[in-house]
């Protein structure tokens, strides 16, 4: 069975995409050009965050397409989809990028992995604030979920106007709010490993 963990290269790139976003936020004026480059760095970070093979969820239709076949997920004509659209992740990063006070480690650390903490040194008694890049990484990790979806699922999301945004009722508590709104069932592939081969 193929590993579902990000590769060393993907983790390295995740770190640098977050560092680039933090550098742009810290050193350049907030304008359309800067924000476009920040958005691009965050988008690339979301792709590296889970890695090419780290897709944990599938819609019921996508899952049923996979069950009973030996073909890999990428060969089934499915869509690899961000459960929370990248546009929303970028907005969350930009909204929290220039906080009134530096992000604290205790709000950031719970979303970081051991690999992240090897890069952004964990807190000491003299440093309670987290580096901005680590705070961006935490935002990306907290809001990046990737799922396999069928063309029918895509059509439902598009018909509901939820291709690139969350439903109006979204309050941050249900990360699957777009799917819930459209009545699309989601399968956790960790709980149903038969379909991950």
Provide structural commentary:
The protein has 197 residues and is an alpha+beta fold. The chain has one domain (8-196). The protein is 48% helix and 7% strand. It contains 9 helices and 4 strands; from the N terminus they run H-H-E-H-E-H-H-H-H-E-H-H-E. It has a 4-stranded mixed sheet. Helix 1 packs across helix 7 (132-143), helix 2 crosses helix 7 and helix 4 (86-97) packs antiparallel against helix 7. It is globular and about 50 Å long. The relative contact order is 0.19.
Tell me the count of domains: 1
Please give the count of helices: 9
Q: Going across the major beta sheet, what is the strand order?
A: 2-3-1-4
Strand portion: 5-15%
Give the SSE layout:
Layout: H1 8-27, H2 32-50, E1 57-59, H3 60-66, E2 79-82, H4 86-97, H5 105-108, H6 114-119, H7 132-143, E3 146-149, H8 151-159, H9 177-182, E4 186-188
Parallel strand pairs: 1-3
Antiparallel strand pairs: 1-4, 2-3
Helix pairs in contact: 1-2, 1-7, 2-4, 2-7, 4-7
Protein traits:
single chain, 197 residues, alpha+beta, 4-stranded mixed sheet, 4 strands
């Amino acid at each position: 069975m193929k590993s579902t963990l990000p590769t060393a290269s993907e983790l390295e790139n995740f770190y640098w995409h977050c560092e680039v976003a933090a550098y742009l936020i810290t050193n350049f004026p907030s304008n359309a050009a800067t924000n476009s480059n920040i958005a691009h760095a965050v988008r690339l970070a979301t792709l590296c965050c889970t890695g090419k093979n780290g897709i944990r969820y599938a819609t019921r239709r996508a899952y049923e397409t996979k069950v009973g076949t030996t073909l890999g997920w990428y060969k089934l004509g499915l869509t690899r989809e961000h459960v929370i659209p990248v546009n929303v992740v970028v907005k969350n990063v930009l909204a929290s990028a220039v906080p009134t006070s530096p992000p604290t480690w205790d709000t950031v650390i719970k979303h970081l992995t051991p690999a992240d903490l090897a890069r952004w040194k964990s807190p000491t008694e003299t440093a309670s604030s987290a580096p901005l890049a680590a705070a961006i990484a935490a935002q990306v990790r907290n809001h990046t979920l990737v799922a396999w979806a069928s063309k029918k699922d895509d059509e439902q999301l598009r018909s509901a106007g939820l291709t690139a945004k969350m439903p109006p009722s979204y309050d941050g508590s249900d990360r699957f709010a777009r799917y819930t709104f459209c009545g699309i069932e989601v399968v956790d592939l960790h709980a149903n490993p038969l379909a991950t081969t």
